Amino acid sequence: MIHTRNPFRFLSTACMLAVLAGSAHAQLLAPSEAAVPAGPAAAAQTSRPGSPSSVQVNNEQISYATGVVTVRNFAKNKIEIDVEAVIRGMRDALAGNKSLAMNDKEIRTAMNALQVELRRMDKLNKREAADVNNKRGLAFQAEYKQKPGVKALGNGILYREIKPGTGPTPTELDHVVVNYRGALTDGTEFDATHADQPATLRLVQGIMGWREALKRMPQGATWEIVIPHPLAYGERGVPGTIGPNETLVFQVELLDIKRS
């Protein structure tokens, strides 16, 4: 909902975008302290039809998109904006500094106030999301335990054997060659390998739940593994991909073990 009264009423769109864009980043790496391997999916992005490099846009489209993104970002952060004041600020800035209704000091003060408000709202949103995700994760785990064949590892990790394995199990210092799919409890996939392009990962660099499960997994096996948030990415999550306190669901096929 966009309202017409707001203490930040003389901010230009360019300034607002600069503030709001600062928090938008997320790229998954390995299932480690940062995230899970992006693998082939990341490389494929460079040639995907419709990518920015293959689409020509004109100035009107860019300008319109800037307005849409600005309003959506403010709405997402529950910040009210005065649309008429935004337009007036843009026109005044284009006309030159002498036309501005605020001096540089006043603009900096307003921008600082906006940054403080954005940080406050970000913390509030994260707390709310963490609580929702925690409750949803606990409910998912309770339901998952009732499925046939599900076993617990004693540390909150649950798993179900899809295909048995007869080989050895890895140690934390080993590298493992795996096919895997990582998803949230609602089924949203955040990363996966392809069957013909498995990932080779050093087990010790994985998140705790990943390490604990794979250390018990024999080579050749395929497991579905449910990892509670304290053994995954906890309250920090992975910005833009995995929320705070998210329970994760992996399907992992352990193809090979490379001893260190």
From TrEMBL:
GO biological process: protein folding
Reaction catalysed by this enzyme: [protein]-peptidylproline (omega=180) = [protein]-peptidylproline (omega=0)
PROSITE patterns from the UniProt entry: FKBP_PPIASE
InterPro entries: PPIase_dom_sf (IPR046357), PPIase_FKBP_dom (IPR001179), PPIase_FKBP_N (IPR000774), PPIase_FKBP_N_sf (IPR036944)
Enzyme class, broadest EC rank: isomerase
Pfam families in the record: FKBP_C, FKBP_N
Gene3D superfamilies: 3.10.50.40, Peptidyl-prolyl cis-trans isomerase, FKBP-type, N-terminal domain
Domain PPIase FKBP-type: 173-258
Keyword field contains NAD: no
GO molecular function: peptidyl-prolyl cis-trans isomerase activity
Record's signal peptide: 1-26
Keywords annotated in UniProt: Isomerase, Rotamase, Signal
EC number: 5.2.1.8
Family named by the database record: Belongs to the FKBP-type PPIase family.
Listed name of the protein: Peptidyl-prolyl cis-trans isomerase
